[in-house]
Write a structure and sequence with these properties.
Elements (H helix, E strand, L loop, with lengths): L1 E6 L3 H16 L3 E2 L8 E6 L4 H12 L1 H7 L4 E6 H4 L3 H8 L5 E3 L7 H9 L4 E3 L19 E5 L1 E2 L10 H5 L3 E2 L2 H13 L4 E5 L16 H9 L6 E5 L8 H9 L6 E3 L7 H6 L6 H14 L4 E8 L6 H14 L3 E6 L17 H26 L3 E9 L6 E6 L4 E5 L8 E10 L2 E9 L2
Parallel strand pairs: 1-2, 1-3, 3-4, 4-5, 5-6, 7-10, 10-11, 12-13, 13-14, 17-19
Antiparallel strand pairs: 8-9, 15-16, 15-18, 16-17, 18-19
The chain binds S-adenosyl-L-homocysteine (SAH), iron/sulfur cluster and FE3-S4 cluster.
The site of S-adenosyl-L-homocysteine has 17 residues, from β13.
Length: 439
């Protein structure tokens, strides 16, 4: 019997899908590479923007035909979209061929639900079951990297964002659990660990034990052996000097920070409830660059938040030019039901949003190109992460700062550290050749 998982959304979901895979393998299913071959198909969903949701509903709709051809196919919808209010009921009425609906915190019910579904019993449950997240065998799919949750949920309530509603309040995992998982991963041969949280910097705030994110970084940084530690996402309001110092103190902790700014306008940042100003943000960038001169900083930016004027948008462009991100994920604001921004005045027309996102992308592209050009001729340590399927015998991996590089070698190199001389750059893409490798 085979399973196929469609994963939408962020790394949180990518990692949840590894837990889903672990549960299904425990039920004697094996991974397969297409929906057509599957006996069970899982949609691990995202609802961060309307476009994400529309795509998912389209894919769930396409199941109808597959189910007609294979009535024993089990269909599961879980994740952030199904956790939204009213969505489980909507699926029940509009997509009756879906067998199982679960939310973001009750994956531990999946096993039982699948057993029921085999007996043609439907199972819809999106109850919030706090702290049920950790007890899974995982089937990891991202070697040499391994994802590790450190905190779940979010307390920040940025006014545009659905995440706090579908992922619940912030819950940190005990530090000993995180450390044990990381140590085991290193014993298993993983070469990179990425700590995951909506706001890693507030790690520990909700725990009895007096721990902080900086303390966690120190504990992991001290571990023996050659590996890389990354983490995401950092909220600018909570990224403190002790975290920057911890990154600087250990060679294993990558000088790479994902620091979503969202907007360069103080008025918009205030309306977004981000709790920092552009001045605070610039100060933070200065502090980071002072301690970590080779750091790669990436970001998320949104255009077309309600009330965003031309001047506000110009402030965003100005910030992007000044910060010099190595890359930026740029989004068009999408109205999410149940969030405060949904009912704000002055929603921005689509044509304006479209023009702004085009200009923002062009602006960041210039910055990326400039950084890429400056890297040509230099040699960087790269962890070989996987194949670039567009080219034969070509692998890719990242520099410590997080830039993706392509180079010739075969798959036996995956998981090795190599030194790569950068030979050419086409805006976002770097090409190089291996000049030396670890013994
Ligand atoms: N916890 C992370 C982000 C999680 S969501 C943080 O606080 O930075 C990832 C990104 O999606 C956000 O940074 C934001 O840029 C974007 N996003 C969130 N809600 C959105 C919305 N309603 N419309 C468009 N983009 C959105
Ligand atoms: Fe959403 Fe803000 Fe929480 Fe990030 S910090 S998940 S953008 S509410
Ligand atoms: Fe991630 Fe989407 Fe949920 S971005 S937390 S999968 S809403």
């Amino acid at each position: 019997m085979n399973y196929f998982i469609h994963t939408y959304g962020c790394q949180m979901n990518v990692h949840d899908s590894e837990k889903i895979a672990g549960i299904l393998e425990g039920l004697a299913y094996s991974a397969c590479d297409s929906v057509e071959k599957a006996d069970i198909v899982v949609f691990n969903t995202c609802c961060i923007r309307e476009t994400a949701e529309q795509k998912i509903y389209g894919h769930i709709g396409a199941l109808k035909k597959l189910k007609r051809n294979n009535p024993n196919l089990i269909a599961v919808v879980c994740g952030c979209m199904s956790q939204q209010e009213g969505v489980a009921d909507k699926i029940k009425s509009s997509y009756p061929y879906v067998d199982i609906v679960l939310g973001t915190t009750n994956l531990n019910l999946l096993e039982r639900a699948v057993v029921d579904a085999r007996k043609k019993k439907k199972y819809y449950n999106v109850d919030f079951l706090q702290y049920s997240e950790e007890d899974f065998n995982q089937t990891r799919t991202s070697f040499p990297n391994a994802w590790v949750n450190i905190n779940y949920g979010c307390n920040n309530f940025c006014t545009y964002c659905i995440v706090p509603y579908v992922r619940g309040r912030e819950r940190s995992r005990p530090m000993s659990d995180v450390l044990n998982e990381v140590k085991q991963l290193l014993r298993d041969g993983y070469k990179e660990v990425t700590l995951l949280g909506q706001n890693v910097n507030s790690y520990g705030h909700d725990l009895q034990e007096p721990v902080t994110f900086a303390m966690l970084l120190h504990e992991i940084g001290k571990l023996e052996g050659k590996f890389r530690l990354r983490f995401m996402t950092s909220h600018p309001k909570d990224l403190s000097q002790d975290v920057i110092d911890a990154i600087a103190a250990y060679p294993n902790i990558c000088d790479n920070i994902h620091l979503p700014v969202q907007s360069g306008s103080n008025e918009i940042l205030r309306k977004m409830n981000r709790r920092y100003t552009r001045e605070n943000y610039f100060e933070l960038i200065d502090k980071i660059r002072k301690s970590l001169p080779h750091v790669g900083i990436t970001t998320d930016i949104m255009v077309g938040f309600p009330g965003e004027t031309d001047d506000d948008f110009e402030d965003t462009l100005d910030l992007v030019r000044r910060v010099k991100y190595s890359s930026a994920f740029c989004f068009v604001y999408s109205r999410r039901k149940g969030t405060p921004a949904y009912s704000m005045d002055n929603q921005i027309p689509y044509a304006v949003k479209k023009e702004r996102i085009t200009r923002l992308l062009a602006c960041q592209n210039e910055v990326t190109k400039e950084i890429s050009k400056s890297m040509v001729g230099n040699t960087y340590e790269v962890l070989v992460e996987g194949a670039n399927f567009h080219y034969q015998n070509t692998m890719c991996g990242r520099t410590e700062s997080g830039r993706l590089v392509n180079f010739k070698c075969d798959e036996t190199y995956i998981g090795k550290f190599v030194s790569v001389l950068i030979e050419r750059a086409s805006s976002a893409t770097l090409w190089g050749r291996i000049v030396s490798e670890e013994k």
